[in-house]
Amino acid sequence: MQPIPIRTTRSYKMARVFPTDVNSYQTLFGGRLMAYIDDIASIAAAKLSRANTITASTDSVDFLYPIYMTDSVTLEAFVTWTGRSSMETFVKVIREDLKSGERQIAATAFLTFVAMDDHGRKIEVAPVVPETEEEQKLHDSAPERALMRKQRREASRALAEFLTSRYPWEPEHEAD
């Protein structure tokens, strides 16, 4: 497949923070931001694959600074690296105080998506080519994140085999 410039996957989402979006500390709900992140990352993945995409993992969401009701939030997402059918997507969250104009990176996230055909089968995706210094740094460090992702997934599967699926109110003799 022909390599595709990372810039073609860039996607943006902007929102104002309203009273219904904040927690008791008057900052944006983490879950609301996580939904925004998954949404915009899926668009970037779909722009590369031009196919259905599913979230395979949310590797990390690092909340660096609070986002207040006086802020807008802008999310920028792009595919940083690809496997055969998987796509690592990076999301940068920028908070902007709408009164002062001050901006800062409020959060970052890495998610992995898998491209699927209309029958639910994985399909191959094109590799991406970095062009900017930011894209190059994220692209170069992606294989290390992919290895950590694989190790974490294996550990999660092992833990899941140990855990019970029985509800607390069910008798112990029922099947797990």
TrEMBL record:
GO molecular-function term, one example from the UniProt record: long-chain fatty acyl-CoA hydrolase activity
Biased composition (Basic and acidic residues): 135-147
InterPro entries: Cytosol_ACT, HOTDOG_ACOT, HotDog_dom_sf, Thioestr_dom
Pfam family, one: 4HBT
Domain of life: Bacteria
Hydrolase found in the keyword field: yes
Keywords assigned: Hydrolase
GO CC list: cytosol
Domain annotation HotDog ACOT-type: ranges: 7-119
Residue ranges of the region described as Disordered: 130-150
Single GO BP term: fatty acid catabolic process
Annotated family: Belongs to the acyl coenzyme A hydrolase family.
Record-given protein name: Acyl-CoA thioesterase
